[in-house]
Amino acid sequence: MRIALAQLDCVLGDVQANVDKARSAVKEAAGRRADVVIFPELSLHGYALGSVPGDESISTEDVRLAELSGYGPDVLVGLYEDGRLRRYNAASYVASGTVLHTHRKLYLPNYLDWEERKHFSPGHALRAFPTPHARAATLICNDAWQPVLPWLAAQDGAEILFVPTNSAAGMAPGAIDTAVYWQDLLLNIARLQQCWVVFVNRVGEEGKASFWGGSRVLDPWGTVVAEAPRDAEALTVVDVDVSAVRRRRREMPLLEEPRFGLVSREVGRLMQEGVD
């Protein structure tokens, strides 16, 4: 399986311009014989949607999504989804003109300069899904920071975790070094869930945000096998051996005893005690 990491900038609120740019990236990836092209979070819309005067959300039935997969490779693209009554920070996986799966971001940051709860509704489900190349799951940015979600995706059979992201640096005095946090987080996910992890971050400036790139792919042992540059647009192509997931999970069967009954009982107890 050959994956292309489309580490790109985008134009805030200009869907057509971003679709055109994505199309060019897909065509280039096709020329490099990629099977899948992964774009960053909200790659068709930009992040600071509160400063866009109109509603630029689009439905997953928008023909432009289907057309992006018409050049050969499958596509995972980030969008501001029109869910009719609600709007979502979503990522759709499209293959051969069909949207196979759409993940709606589950955990919306609402602190410091991140105010996603003002503009999006949270999703309500996490599902691994079959693609023509492997069983996959999507975690959008802050989803990957919730330890239970990568575990649930792996338990649902995910061999590859796609992590489209808008991670910025230095947005507030004393802010954490997000690049270091992501480095450690992705290593932890790959090793504990014993799967491929494909992290695709945006680049460019938008308001006070400076997106730093650094997209990468980690194997089921936690080794970084490909990495895009910092602070620059790039199309990085890497070959992934999906069978390595099964091999690693046989070597060290960390996931074989999930104890769902135990987890369900303890979550139920916490809910009864008013935690949620």
Describe the 3D structure.
By secondary structure, this protein is α/β, with parallel strands linked by helices. The chain has one domain: Carbon-nitrogen hydrolase (Nitrilase/N-carbamoyl-D-aminoacid amidohydrolase, 4-Layer Sandwich), CATH 3.60.110. The protein has helices at residues 15-31, 63-68, 148-155, 178-193, 243-251, 260-272; strands spanning 2-7, 36-38, 74-83, 86-95, 98-104, 110-111, 114-115, 129-130, 135-138, 160-165, 196-201, 203-206, 209-212, 216-218, 224-227, 234-239. The strands form 4 sheets. The chain has a 6-stranded mixed sheet with strand order 5-4-3-2-1-16. Strand 8 (129-130) and strand 9 form a beta hairpin. The protein is globular, with a radius of gyration of 18 Å. It starts with a strand and ends with a helix. The relative contact order is 0.15. The mean pLDDT is 95.
Helix/strand layout:
Layout lengths: L1 E6 L7 H17 L4 E3 L24 H6 L5 E10 L2 E10 L2 E7 L5 E2 L2 E2 L13 E2 L4 E4 L9 H8 L4 E6 L12 H16 L2 E6 L1 E4 L2 E4 L3 E3 L5 E4 L6 E6 L3 H9 L8 H13 L4
Parallel strand pairs: 1-2, 2-3, 9-10, 10-11
Antiparallel strand pairs: 1-16, 3-4, 4-5, 6-7, 8-9, 11-14, 12-13, 14-15
